[in-house]
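Sample entry (133 residues):
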Amino acid sequence: ESPSVEIGANVAANLAGAQTPKESEVDKAFRNNLLAAGCASGIAAGFNAPVAGLFFALESVQSNYGPEEARERGPPMQLLAAVLAATVSQLGLGSSPAVDLEFFGWVPARSLWELPFFILLGLLCGLVAAALR
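Predicted structure, serialized as tokens:
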């Protein structure tokens, strides 16, 4: 998730240009909307999920930033960026998944012996987390 968000955000930041010290609130909000659109497109292209990209951008990047007018213009721009990124990604890479999960299928007859070790690992991690708290 993180690399696709970082790539999309950096592309959007480069498209937005350099930030000036006397930038108005509307310009800052527009820059933030572009950054959110880049994040949404990164998630959408990486996971083929434009709506998830939009919600990610709305929750983690935009979240009540800037004047009301800029907040109203942000979601349509982010949705368009996410849909276009998912479409271009599907056209370029195809719709097949990158990892075949059936290859890593869990077969209880062969993997059941590992279950006590995972339970022990979970308990150990819980104790370490409680000690570091």
